[in-house]
Amino acid sequence: MRINARVMGALVGLVIALLFIFLPWPTVLLILGLSLLGYICGLYLEAGKQVKEKLRELFSLFFG
Predict the structure, then answer these.
(1) Per-residue confidence at 29, pLDDT binned at 50, 70, 90?
(2) What's the CA gap between 17 and 19, in Å, rounded?
(3) Do 53 and 47 form a contact (C-beta atoms < 8 A)?
(4) Longest CA span, the chain
(5) In the prediction, which pLDDT does 64 show?
(6) Is residue 31 a contact partner of residue 20, using CB atoms and an 8 Å limit?
(7) What is the C-alpha to C-alpha distance for residues 19 and 29, in angstroms, rounded to an integer?
(8) CA dihedral defined by 62, 10, 16, 36, rounded to 10 degrees?
């Protein structure tokens, strides 16, 4: 079975919902924030010269 974006989104949503149920919300927000920071750092290290383009793409995904 191939995992597509919808299935991955549903799994991530389920994990986040379970975190909100079993952990206090500030802890969940801290985990999500640090995960996002790690993702951005990974993009930066992977991109090399294309850092600005990758970051613009990331921010347009979240805020555009």
Answers:
(1) confident
(2) 5
(3) yes
(4) 41
(5) 65
(6) no
(7) 10
(8) -30
